[in-house]
Write a structure and sequence with these properties.
The structure holds two protein chains of two kinds. Chain A is 51% helix and 15% strand. By secondary structure, chain A is of the alpha+beta class. Chain A has three domains: 115 residues, Acyl-CoA dehydrogenase/oxidase, N-terminal domain (Butyryl-Coa Dehydrogenase, subunit A, domain 1, Orthogonal Bundle); 96 residues, Butyryl-CoA Dehydrogenase, subunit A, domain 2; 146 residues, Butyryl-CoA Dehydrogenase, subunit A, domain 3. The mean pLDDT of chain A is 96. Chain B contains eleven helices and eight strands. Chain B has a four-stranded mixed β-sheet. A four-stranded antiparallel β-sheet of chain B has the order 2-3-7-6, with no helix packed on it. Classes of the chains: A alpha+beta, B alpha+beta. Chains A and B meet through α7, β10, α8, α9 and α11 of A and α7, α8, α9 and α11 of B.
């Protein structure tokens, strides 16, 4: 995706690809789905040993953050995860680790980060409302002061891997502004209701907060002052999400290209017909656009560049729309076989369509861009 | 809007600190000479407009001044000395363009320098190189490309213009079209059919043609918006001496390929050398045009308008980021050289898509307004924005799918068939 990876990053990419080909190829997702399971905890633990979450965790808390480029490196992993339509709490656990490393007290970092880095603690971020415009704004959970702590009420939707999570990061709206909390998933008053997700490799849930008491030890950063931290977390999540979408599209495009070269109709490869190859030319063009936008967003967010907020929305719009458009047409080019359960392409298209709409649909990001442009 | 000079930014970045003594001496010489002899670069002035005869004449003078001043005339810096150039490396050319930033450069020589010069260097005889290259560098010859014909443009190897050998001369008959600046050019690079009895690519020859002879009539073409830089030529017993055949007889397709590759390379570099500043921002910059337009149209708070503007911002940024990534990737080997074809396709799609977004944003205001206002321009952009010149959209789609993606070609019914057995189109008249 990025054409300027350094040696360490190239190594990370190769190592991740080898690991996934060996331990979690697309056939693994098919097995999980057929077996009615969500994800493979053993694979997740092994993956954590490779340092996937540790990228965000400082050395003193069991991580490797000092010698890594957190968001940029994690984007490399995410792209590889996309190529195999990986099922697992990568994005959610990474972003929660990122948030705690950035905003947590010494005690919070010491309590949570080692487990997250080791793959023993799974985490989910609860912030999005349930509606069609969900994805880039928090506020569906409210925080009101009580004593030296807060009480949380409301519903957060589309929370990734909340059902399996041990730890929840909650972004809630108070009278002064946004506040964030880290709470064990078993805290009284929290109910996790699994959602029926079309992406078969992604667990999503609605998390209900009913009079949940969050003591001062749960408050992440200062009360009412989490707006900036929220935006940083959102940007990090969008980078990983877009990188994954690029991987999904890249791989589906790759095997479609092989298919149109091999498949013959009327005496020649179907890929020799302009009716198909002109579409594929447009698709590779949009895919290159998605790669460029996602790579730029990763670098901008990692560097804290002045255009980081714009870059993630540009990337989200481009990656989301092109992925669906490209893979939908790739399925079309497969003909009838593409619509069968036996072919892998539906796993790819499910993830593409789902990714386009989660974390802010293109329309939500277009609106955000207008706002960022001062309109 | 794309090909006009920009206002100076105030802060000029040069690579002066990297100069060797020799480079520094060249820089100072260029700086001093340009300050004394070149007209300033005027923001908004078109890089080229062949309809503007005064501007064409000015560029001829500038080219001559650069040559007379020992600066090689715009792009002669890397041309060998025996052909009138300076025989220096690319670094000196970079220095030249850095120093030329405040001044107008002779951009009407685009065809001559981007296309004709590489063709002459690659395929010309010693005699041709010594005769024609110095005349380009000194401003004496403006060149046109006589390639497309009214009977077809994409199928270039199917040209119908006939070249017949009579004694020591060739006699050319036919019609050429879409020649930029044909009416002001002195010489033309002309692809013609020298042998119609063999398959189409094998019977072509490239000629260096004197545009000022009686058999050559040149007619400007009027495009939908009014004028244009383009012409149609009728060749009626045009005479070319045998010494002005470029490359071998019946091997004109080899020269044509150099020509097309040079054209593509030129487009990738930016046709008007020295027009754009090399240093682009590393960050996404949102064009202020959108906020201004939204305010003018009174739609800043309108949800639909904000969607369209958001989309336009994405469109611009994706084009910018993709071309930067492609350039970097092609340079460091992370991407294949064919990635340039993808960027070129994206450029076409982006400009077309942007006119659609702006037209939707403006609504009826973009198609009719007060006389003298710029409202109807938005609608007219929708009418005139296509990718036809420089390779149609369809040819670009072929290039990307066949060369970049490696997909098989469509079988053609013109291969291995003598050209005179193929069916041909008529030759319509496009100029009034």
């Amino acid at each position: 995706m990025d054409v300027e990876l350094n040696e360490d990053q190239t190594m990370l990419q190769e190592m991740t690809r080898r690991f996934l080909e060996d331990r979690s190829p697309i056939a693994a997702l098919r097995r999980l789905v057929d077996g009615g399971e969500g994800f493979d905890r053993e694979v997740w633990r092994q993956a954590a040993e490779l340092g996937w979450v540790a990228l965000f965790v400082p050395e003193e808390n069991g991580g490797i953050a000092e010698s890594a480029q957190g968001v940029a490196d994690a984007a490399i992993v995410a792209e590889e995860l996309g190529r195999v339509v990986f099922s697992g709490p990568f994005l959610s656990t990474c972003v929660v680790a990122f948030a705690i490393a950035q905003s947590g007290s010494e005690a919070q970092r010491a309590e949570w980060l080692p487990g997250l880095a080791a793959g023993e603690t799974l985490a989910s971020w609860c912030f999005a409302g349930p509606g069609t415009k969900a994805g880039v704004r928090a506020g569906s959970v409210s925080a009101s002061r009580r004593g030296d702590g807060h009480v949380l009420d409301g519903i957060a939707a589309y929370a990734e891997y909340a059902e399996a999570a041990d730890l929840l990061l909650v972004t809630a709206q108070g009278v002064q502004g946004l506040s964030q909390f880290v709470l064990p998933a078993g805290t009284a008053g929290i109910t996790v209701e699994p959602m029926d997700a079309m992406d078969l490799g992604r667990s999503l849930a609605r998390v209900r907060f009913e009079g949940v008491v969050a003591g001062p030890e749960a408050l992440l950063g200062d009360a009412g002052k989490a707006d900036e931290a929220f935006e940083r977390q959102l940007q990090a999540a969008l980078v990983l999400h877009c990188a994954e979408t690029v991987g999904v599209t890249d791989r589906a495009f790759e095997f479609t290209l092989e298919w149109v070269n091999e498949r013959h109709a009327f005496g020649r490869p179907i890929g020799s017909y302009q009716a198909l190859k002109h579409r594929l030319a447009d698709h590779v063009m949009q895919l290159e656009g998605a790669k460029a936008a996602a790579a730029h967003a990763a670098r901008a967010v990692q560097a804290g560049a002045p255009d980081a907020a714009i870059a993630v929305s540009v990337a989200k719009s481009q990656c989301g729309r092109s992925a669906t458009e490209i893979i939908r047409d790739c399925l079309q080019m497969h003909g009838g076989i593409g619509l069968t359960w036996e072919h892998d392409i539906h796993f790819y298209l499910r993830r593409a369509v789902s990714n386009e709409m989660l974390w802010g649909s293109p329309a939500v990001h277009h609106e955000r861009l207008s706002r960022l442009a001062g309109i | 809007m794309e090909n006009t000079a920009e206002a100076p930014t105030g802060e000029r970045r040069t690579s002066e600190h990297l100069d060797t003594d020799e480079q520094r001496a060249f820089r100072l010489k260029a700086r001093e000479y340009m300050a004394a002899n070149l007209p300033p670069r005027i923001p908004g002035q078109p890089a080229n407009s062949f309809e503007d005869l005064e501007l064409v004449a000015l560029d001829r003078q500038i080219q001559k001044k650069l040559y007379d001043g020992g600066l090689g005339g715009y792009v002669g810096i890397t041309v060998p000395e025996e052909y009138g150039g300076l025989g220096l490396d690319r670094r000196f050319e970079d220095i030249f363009f850095e120093e030329a930033e405040p001044y107008r450069l002779p951009w009407h020589y685009g065809n001559a320098v981007v296309i004709v010069l590489p063709c002459l260097l690659a395929h010309g005889t010693e005699e041709q190189k010594k005769k024609y290259i110095p005349r380009i560098l000194s401003g004496e010859h403006l060149w046109a490309q006589l390639l497309s014909e009214p009977s077809g443009g994409s199928d270039l190897a199917g040209v119908l213009t006939r070249a017949e050998k009579r004694g020591d001369e060739w006699v050319l008959n036919g019609s050429k079209v879409w020649t930029s600046g044909g009416h002001v050019s002195d010489m033309g690079l002309c692809l013609a059919r020298s042998d119609p009895t063999v398959r189409k690519h094998a019977g072509l020859t490239m000629f260096l043609v004197d545009m000022h002879q009686p058999g050559m009539s040149v007619h400007p073409i009027r495009l939908v918006r009014g004028g244009s830089d383009f012409c149609q030529e009728f060749l009626d017993d045009v005479i070319v001496p045998d010494c002005d055949v470029l490359g071998d007889v019946n091997d004109g397709w080899t020269v044509a390929r150099t020509q097309l590759n040079s054209e593509r390379a030129g487009m990738a570099r930016g046709w008007h050398y020295g027009l754009r500043r090399a240093e682009a921002s590393a960050h996404i910059e949102i064009s202020r045009r959108y906020a201004r337009l939204a305010e003018e149209l009174g739609v800043s708070g309108d949800a639909d308008a904000r969607q369209l503007i958001g989309e336009a911002i994405v469109l611009d940024a994706v084009y910018d980021l993709t071309s930067k990534r492609a350039a970097t990737g092609a340079r460091n080997g992370a991407l294949p050289p064919t990635i340039g074809m993808v960027t070129s396709l994206l450029s076409a799609r982006t400009s077309i898509d942007r006119t659609a977004l702006m037209s939707a944003l403006a609504g009826p205001v973009g198609v009719a307004g007060s006389p003298g206002g710029d409202g109807p321009d938005i609608g007219m952009d929708r009418v005139v924005t296509h990718r036809i010149g420089g390779g149609t959209l369809e040819m670009q789609l072929n290039l990307v799918s066949e060369r970049h993606l490696g997909l098989p070609r469509e079988p053609g019914s013109d291969r291995d068939v003598p050209f005179n057995q193929l069916r041909h189109n008529a030759t319509p008249k496009l100029a009034g």
